[in-house]
Write a structure and sequence with these properties.
homodimer; 217 residues; 27% strand; globular
Amino acid sequence: MTKVRVAGFSISLDGFGAGPDQSLEDPLGRGGEDLHQWVFPTRTFRTIHGEEGVGTTGLDDNFVRRSFDNVGAWILGRNMFGPVRGPWPDESWKGWWGDNPPYHAPVFVLTHHARPPVEMEGGTIFHFVTGGIEEALDRARAAAGEAADVRIGGGAATIRQYLQTRLIDELHIAISPVLLGEGEPLFAGLDLPALGYQVTAHAASEAATHVIVTRSD
Amino acid sequence: MTKVRVAGFSISLDGFGAGPDQSLEDPLGRGGEDLHQWVFPTRTFRTIHGEEGVGTTGLDDNFVRRSFDNVGAWILGRNMFGPVRGPWPDESWKGWWGDNPPYHAPVFVLTHHARPPVEMEGGTIFHFVTGGIEEALDRARAAAGEAADVRIGGGAATIRQYLQTRLIDELHIAISPVLLGEGEPLFAGLDLPALGYQVTAHAASEAATHVIVTRSD
């Protein structure tokens, strides 16, 4: 059975999945990079960024690697795709990630503004979905096929929408030992137990506490 | 230099320091006991409850033991003292903890309704403070003397008031791997970095992630 899942999503102790004031210079918002300190040293992350054979192994690396395992299609919110707001002024913005993004699969970007698909190097194709979160999930499931998962990459607002509609099967959340004070809250105002979600596993490294949250029915 | 500190205060992954609907049967609110699973098996906790020589040692036990070290006076919110709301109907309610509460020091209870002090066994005296959080802290500091700390026991609303006024020097928070969905939020709406607070240490056991939050100036 394939899953709709969130993986490797980091939050602060005070519950923020990104800092405030996202911009070209600060894709993760102010202070947002601190959330991901558990990722950067790992072997999987460094390999993705072209540094073969270096980086840490162990719990954090396992979670980064598993976050990419068997992902057949992705869903991203508009703000995770870029800082452009409103109608697309032109076709020039192609994501934060350069010519060869780390997705290597179809990526469905939620937006209110239609735009033709953008094909990148390495198998990533950005599709722009204007019909809402369920249409995006239907298209992502179809693209992923019967054997692969759909990963909802983020950001926090997108994950919240899918949680509220109970469309996520499993989340891996990493809690980083930092306080942001403001930003994009992940859980605020969501009653996850009432929506059927519970913690089913947890483990901690020096850098983060990892929890698996699963929908029970 | 003595400290005003919070210690051994547990929150859920979604940020609640107690569950909803506190009552006589449910002093910690619905689901609230789950927050404290890291405490119950420890040697220090079991010793406090009369079971000498049993219980776990290690990280969790160290944090429980240190939470009681050198505490010269306590401050508690009214709801942490009991489920009675409004004016005291009589003098019968003497806390949740029986004849010999685990404080063994003066305890200053925040309330809007005056009441004479209550002396318990084992050195605990409950004082009822109607003049607000600063008066309670002044009295607690005087009672603790020059060599001992003041511990703010909780609940979440009381800790929030002392954080907003920057009167807490250090917090030890334990994040338990559970979701409550609703309850008493600890950090919601507080910008701790803007108030001068940062994480200065962290460590995790199987049962909880422990963080130390310190005011920097």
